[in-house]
Amino acid sequence: MIEFRKPTAEETKTLAEALRRNASEGTPLHLDPLTTGWIPGADEIRDDEVIDAIRSVPCHYATGKKSKTLRFDGEDLPRGDARKKWLAQVGKIRCGCGSTASYGEHGRDTIGGTAGGFRAVWLGCPNCTGRALGLPLVGDY
To answer: 88 and 29: one domain?
Structure first.
């Protein structure tokens, strides 16, 4: 839940000091990844925070080109192999309505979204709008 309130005088003072240190010394400002709120007094960055920050940048932004691999079922595979395995789910996975997972014409029955902070696409049910089925294909597809 997001709390919309004016910061206290102490919070304002602490944030202003942190912003000045950031501008003059390059001291990082720390944000809570769950609330996106500022964490006062945090001067050290944990290793897992650095790794999470690096992973949160999609590879096509960092390199300017698409990755040569996609992730399917927890495995990084060459793009073509990952896509073949993903499409092999068509007709094998059933929706609650009784229909099987579909790719449809030109991907019409696919559901886009994110998985673990990365772009992802799921096969969809041709009868149930927005129903994602099976395992996602993850990456810049």
So the answer is: no
